[in-house]
Structures are given as structure tokens and as C-alpha cells.
Write a structure and sequence with these properties.
- The complex is a heterodimer of chains A (321) and B (370).
- Chain A contains 15 helices and 2 strands.
- Chain A is mainly α and 321 residues long.
- Chain A has 2 domains: 3-32; 93-314, Orthogonal Bundle (MetI-like fold), CATH 1.10.3720.10.
- Chain B has 2 domains: 2-240, 3-Layer(aba) Sandwich (Rossmann fold), CATH 3.40.50.300; 248-369, OB fold (Dihydrolipoamide Acetyltransferase, E2P) (Beta Barrel), CATH 2.40.50.140.
- Chain B is 24% helix and 36% strand.
- Chain B contains 9 helices and 20 strands.
- Residues 1-11 of chain B have low confidence and may be disordered.
- Classes of the chains: A mainly alpha (321), B alpha+beta (370).
- The interface between A and B is medium-sized, with 18 and 26 residues.
């Protein structure tokens, strides 16, 4: 009843000095930055991000420009005139076509496999009663992030190599050796392992948002576990699947290190071809054109997904559920 | 096991039988040897504070948890190892657990599809049950387009549409505002009586328990404290916990000095009080004398009752239909006593600090061992 006022009077000199300081700071701030301007606050905080993204967009214009200039092989300079020759080249040369096909088909396989594997992992992690199991699963999820991509790719070399772990075990069992290394299969295995944590991390929040009583209700109403999964859990986890698809798809599409190390130079993805064009043959035009093709096809596919399925947990706009 | 089987045969009338059911989490019993029978078509409310084990008991009946000991029978069949989807139980969850990606009608049709009702019958049945809960026009609305009360009704229709043997209500009204909650309590009661479905309701709201139920179980600390009709539960609480949990009750500590059939004489701060007992109490037993606030009275000038004492008003709260006084009676060892004054009669225009005389009729005093 008299608590708060008595408290003010009893406050120590130090506390009162602190109040005066914050009051002064408050007064100063409202003089410098009147209430009306507060509506602008979010936009002001947006400026740094806008500048960084702006640099990337400017770079895109530069790449677009460069993709339309042809390399003069006698001077190693780019032509003054614009032409579509680099794009025609990508279309006509079997080498480029197969790199593009390998990249997109590989990305599709990786995305689908990662979604299939990460759903049970995420589901168990979210629903388990055991806090030990949950921590164990979380720890395993983050462990690979500390290792870095290159170290992990070399790990696969040790496991899959001719004298590696897998062949050692097969030899012990008296089975024939396999030579997976430096094939597209090795690249896919490496990419799936690399992308799995991303898939789990994107799916987990969507599964957490499903009240476990909703599943209990479904069961109580007569549904078997697979019916509950199909009619209730999967539809409600859709935003998580959209987010996981977009993240896994876009990162895999532009992968460089894993195809380079596990593909052994004969199973290049687009990013490797771009690297070669820029730094091996110094053909900026060809590299830029490949980059543009990658961006256009990737963006189109993601846009189509968003248009069909909504933006999932990636988007912040409230959708009409 | 033999004994269990025999007992289930002897009372085939019961819709639900719970026999010595326990649930132990990490060595601590959440439910401790609970037993009760519930006859067909009855409305039972399990009432208790949070952590009393009432929700655990309900979830074991529903099949979401398996008892660590004991057996549950539904219509005479032991079910403790039967998974929920094979039991015939409709449940309304605390947070309703409606399917947000379906319409009201799709929610109600869900159990019919899962339980393989003839597809031709489903639309008609869904329509009938939506009308039962007065939601006919809202069949095609999504869940988030319905109000809180309408969502409640969808949950009830979904739980009842497949004509389950048993309806379970897990505090579904707790989140509603008071007016809507009271309306829905009566609605539950109306639907339950219309369909005659055996119902078990769990709540911590004592008013709800008294209003809607045929029978009330009061639980505390994993144990069933009392099972009785609402009037008996309120009028003749079995022990101190029940007397304290339901209603507003004053307790005066004392010692038994003598007893005759159903009554005991108790010494409280030098006074001799008399009250009724549920079980015979030996002289010297430490007891609490319980007095409902509505049975304590502030007396008028010449009023005579079986016990009276001088007291001073320390608090006075006007609640519209009554005034709640707190008084301190020095004669009773400085005990604080709450008094409901419904008629605004005895106290007149007395206020805080005024001396009054309080009293009660000794047939209202109840004596419980401490």
C-alpha cells in the first residue's frame, strides 16, 4: 500500500544517482529522437543489412554484364560487344549440359533423401521423453558443424577409399571390394551427410509447434499410428518441410567442396565448373553465364515451390491456414 | 488376478471400474491405489488441486498411460494394455487438440473415417452431431474461424459422434472466461443427459464439480479422498482436506475431551465446543473443528445460538451478493474466522475495528482428526 513510495524514499544514494542518470539519458534521447520518428526505427535498423545485400545485387549486375561478353583468346580480354555466345555454348556443349544435369538431379536426390531421413530424427528429438536422448541427438546434430566441410569430406575419403574402412570390413567378411570413391554416389553420400543437420534444424520447430495432444487425440479417435502420421502430423509439419526443402535445395545446388573432393574432378557440379572457368581458363564470360543460369533456374524452382506450398517457416507473413 | 476377475464379474452393471490403479513416476506415486466403480450414464467429476493425480488417472482410463499396478475395466473388459485407438472412448482435451488444418465438419468426420463407418452414413451423422452442439451453420468453417465456445462444441461433437462407451473431459473449460465457462458447464450437462453417455470430467473448479456432476471424487496427493454425490461431498466432507478444498472453511485447532454417538466435545482455547464426527474419536485426539464461512454468523443484539464469542472485524469485503468479514476472536485463542454475511443483517453498518459478537449452531461444526 505504501510500499512503492516508501521504497523510493529509502533508496540508497547510488540507486537514486542511477535513476537520475537514466532519466537524463531518456530526456536526451527523446529530444534527439522524437516520438514521431520512432516509426522509422525498424527501417533504420534495416540499413546495414540493406547495404550488404546491395553489394551482392551490384555484383549480380556485374556478373550479368560479364556473361554477355565473349573472351578474346588472343588478348585474353573480354569483348566490347554484347552477345549470347556464352549461353549458346552452355546449351551446345555436352560437358556443360552434363554438369548442369548432374547438379540438378543430384540436388533433387539429396533434398528428397535428406527430408526422408531428417523427419524421423527431428520427430524423435522433439517428442522423446528422455532428456538424455534429446541432448544426445542435439549434440550429434551440431557436432558436424564444428568440423567444417573439408575435414568431413576427407573423413569420407578415409571411410570410402580403396583401403578404407568400408572395404576393410567387406574384406574381413570375405566380400568383394567396392570402389565408390570419386563417383557421383560418393558425392551424393557426402552431400546427404552434410545437409542432414540443416534438414533436421528446419523441421524441428514445425514439429515442436504441433501439440502432442493433437496426436493423442487422433489416436483416441481411432487412428493407427501411420494414419495419425499421414492425416495429422505430415500436413501440420508442411511449413517445416517447405523450409527444409528450400534450405537444403539452395545450399546443395551451389556446393563446391564436396563434389571437388569426393568427385575427384570427374563429377563436377556447377560451382566447380564456374571455378574452373574463372580460375583455370580465365574465361569470366563463361563462368558468369553459368552463374546466371544457376541463379535463374534455382530462383525459379524456389519461387514455384513458394507459390504452390506457401513460404513455410521461412516466410514471416501470416498465411491463411 | 483371480480376485480381480471375480470382482469384475460381480458388478457387470458398472460402465467403468478402476481397481487399485497406481501410477509411479520415478519412484513417486502420482496415483496411489485408486479404486472406484461408475454406473452407466452417470456424470462423474474428479476434483483436485494441480498435482493431485486426477489428470494422470484420466489419461490411464483413456489409454495414453499404462498403470504400473491395478486394472481398469470398461463394460467389464480389462483394458489397461489396450491401445487408445482400440478403446471406445471420446475425449475432450484441455487445449481441445482440434485439427487446425480441417474444417469443423472434417474434424467431426475424422473418427468416423478412422473407425470405418460406412462412408454413406458419415455426412448425415456429422450433420446430426453438429446440430446437437448447435453448430449446423458452421460446418465448413476452419477451426481458427470459430470462437472459443464454438471450438469447444466442435471438440464435444468430435468426441461423441462415434457413440463411444465413455466420454472423458480433461479440464476443457479451464481456459474460458467465467461466463462462457458456466454456460458450457450446463451445455455439457444437457448433452450428457440427452445422450445418456457415461462421462468422467476432471477439474480443479469446485463449483463446476458441484454443478454438473452426479458424483464427485475428491483427489489429493494421488489418493481418492472421497467419492460421493455433490450434496454429500459438500455437506459431509470425509476429512479435513475435502472440507478445506471445497467451500470456504474455518479451522479451530483443539483436543477431544469426550464423545458420544456421532458427536464429539472438543476443547478449543479453554472453551468446550461440540461438533459432529465422521468416525469415533478417542479423548485426547488432536483435531480441527471445521466451520463453513456461511455457517458462521455475526449476531444481532439479543440473538442466542449454541455458541457465541466476542470478536473484532479486521477485514470487510463487499462482493455484491454477500459481504465477507474476517474477524479475530481473542476468546478462541486469537483465531481468525471468515464470515459470509448474505443478508447484510447481523453486522449492520459495522466496519473494520468494530467489536461484534459471532456465533454458530453447533450442528454445523465438523470435527476432523489433524
Amino acid at each position: 500500500m505504501q510500499g512503492s513510495n516508501a521504497g523510493r524514499a529509502d533508496a540508497s544514494p547510488l540507486t537514486r544517482a542511477r535513476w537520475r542518470l537514466t532519466d537524463a539519458a531518456d530526456t536526451m534521447l527523446s529530444a534527439l529522437f522524437p516520438g514521431r520518428a520512432r516509426r522509422l526505427t525498424p527501417y533504420i535498423f534495416l540499413i546495414p543489412a540493406f547495404l550488404i545485400v546491395g553489394v551482392i545485387v551490384a555484383g549480380l549486375f556485374y556478373i550479368g554484364d560479364s556473361s554477355l561478353r565473349v573472351l578474346d583468346r588472343s588478348t585474353f580480354l573480354q569483348s566490347e560487344d554484347y552477345s549470347l555466345e556464352n549461353y549458346v555454348n552452355i546449351y551446345e556443349r555436352a560437358g556443360y549440359r552434363s554438369v548442369l544435369f548432374r547438379t540438378f538431379s543430384g540436388t533433387a536426390i539429396v533434398t528428397i533423401t535428406v527430408l526422408l531421413l531428417s523427419f524421423p530424427y527431428a520427430y524423435l528429438m522433439v517428442r522423446t521423453q528422455s532428456s538424455f536422448l534429446r541432448k544426445f541427438l542435439l549434440f550429434n546434430l551440431f557436432l558436424p558443424f564444428f568440423l567444417g566441410q573439408v575435414v568431413r569430406a576427407y573423413g569420407w575419403l578415409i571411410i570410402l577409399g580403396q583401403e578404407g574402412l568400408v572395404n576393410g570390413i567387406l574384406g574381413q567378411l570375405g566380400l568383394a571390394n567396392i570402389s565408390v570413391l570419386y563417383t557421383n554416389t560418393a558425392v551424393l553420400i557426402g552431400l546427404i551427410q552434410y545437409m542432414l543437420p540443416f534438414g533436421v534444424l528446419m523441421l524441428a520447430p514445425a514439429l515442436t509447434a504441433i501439440d502432442s495432444d493433437i496426436e493423442a487425440a487422433s489416436e483416441g479417435l481411432g487412428a493407427k499410428w501411420y494414419q495419425t502420421l499421414w492425416h495429422v502430423v505430415l500436413p501440420l509439419a508442411k511449413p517445416g518441410f517447405v523450409a527444409a526443402t528450400v534450405v537444403v535445395f539452395t545450399i546443395t545446388l551451389t556446393e563446391f567442396a564436396i563434389p571437388a573432393i569426393l568427385g575427384g574432378g570427374t563429377n563436377d557440379y556447377v560451382a566447380n565448373a564456374i571455378y574452373d572457368a574463372f580460375f583455370r581458363v580465365s574465361d569470366m564470360g563463361a563462368g558468369s553465364a553459368l552463374g546466371v543460369v544457376l541463379i535463374v533456374i534455382g530462383t525459379t524452382l524456389v519461387s514455384v515451390l513458394f507459390a504452390l506450398m506457401g513460404t513455410g517457416t521461412v516466410g514471416f507473413l501470416k498465411e491463411d491456414k | 488376478m483371480d480376485d480381480t476377475a471375480r470382482r469384475s464379474e460381480t458388478s457387470t452393471q458398472a460402465a467403468v471400474q478402476v481397481q487399485d490403479v497406481s501410477m509411479v513416476f520415478d519412484g513417486t506415486p502420482a496415483v496411489d491405489a485408486a479404486s472406484f466403480d461408475l454406473a452407466h450414464g452417470r456424470f462423474l467429476t474428479i476434483l483436485g488441486p494441480s498435482g493431485s493425480g486426477k489428470t494422470t488417472l484420466l489419461r490411464m482410463i483413456a489409454g495414453f498411460q499404462t498403470p504400473t499396478a491395478g486394472e481398469i475395466f470398461i463394460k467389464g473388459t480389462p483394458v489397461s494394455t489396450t491401445p487408445p485407438h482400440k478403446r471406445s472412448i471420446g475425449m475432450v482435451f484441455q487445449k481441445l487438440a482440434l485439427f487446425p488444418h480441417m474444417t469443423a465438419a472434417e474434424n467431426v468426420a475424422y473418427p468416423l473415417k478412422m473407425r470405418r463407418f460406412a462412408p454413406a452414413d458419415i455426412p448425415g451423422r456429422v450433420k446430426r452431431y453438429l446440430e446437437l452442439v448447435q453448430l449446423g451453420p458452421y460446418a465448413d468453417r476452419r477451426i481458427h474461424q470459430l470462437s472459443g465456445g464454438q471450438q469447444q462444441r466442435v471438440a464435444i461433437a468430435r468426441a461423441l459422434v462415434f457413440e463411444p462407451d465413455l466420454l472423458l473431459l480433461d479440464e476443457p473449460l479451464a481456459a474460458l472466461d467465467r461466463k462462457l465457462r458456466e454456460e458450457m458447464q450446463l451445455e455439457f450437462r444437457r448433452i450428457q443427459q440427452e445422450l445418456g453417455v457415461t462421462t468422467i470430467n476432471v477439474t480443479h473448479d469446485q463449483r463446476e464439480a458441484l454443478v454438473v456432476s452426479d458424483e464427485v471424487i475428491v483427489m489429493d496427493d494421488g489418493r481418492i479422498q472421497q467419492m460421493a454425490s455433490p450434496t454429500t461431498t459438500y455437506g459431509e466432507p470425509a476429512n479435513r482436506f475435502v472440507a478445506n478444498f471445497i467451500g470456504v472453511t474455518n479451522f479451530l485447532p483443539g483436543e477431544v475431551i469426550g464423545a458420544e454417538s456421532g458427536r464429539a466435545r472438543v476443547r478449543v482455547a479453554g472453551h468446550e465446543l461440540e461438533g459432529r464426527v465422521a468416525e469415533p474419536l478417542a479423548a485426547g485426539t488432536q483435531v480441527d473443528c471445521a466451520l463453513r464461512a456461511e455457517h458462521a454468523r455475526i449476531l444481532g443484539e439479543a440473538e442466542a445460538v449454541s455458541f457465541s464469542a466476542d470478536a473484532v472485524i479486521t477485514e470487510s469485503i463487499f462482493e455484491g451478493d454477500r459481504t465477507v468479514y474476517s474477524v479475530v476472536a481473542q476468546a478462541l485463542g486469537g483465531a481468525q474466522i471468515r464470515v459470509f454475511d448474505t443478508l447484510h443483517a447481523g453486522a449492520g453498518n459495522k466496519g473494520i475495528g468494530d467489536a461484534v459478537r459471532i456465533g454458530w449452531d453447533s450442528r454445523h461444526l465438523m470435527v476432523f482428526p489433524r
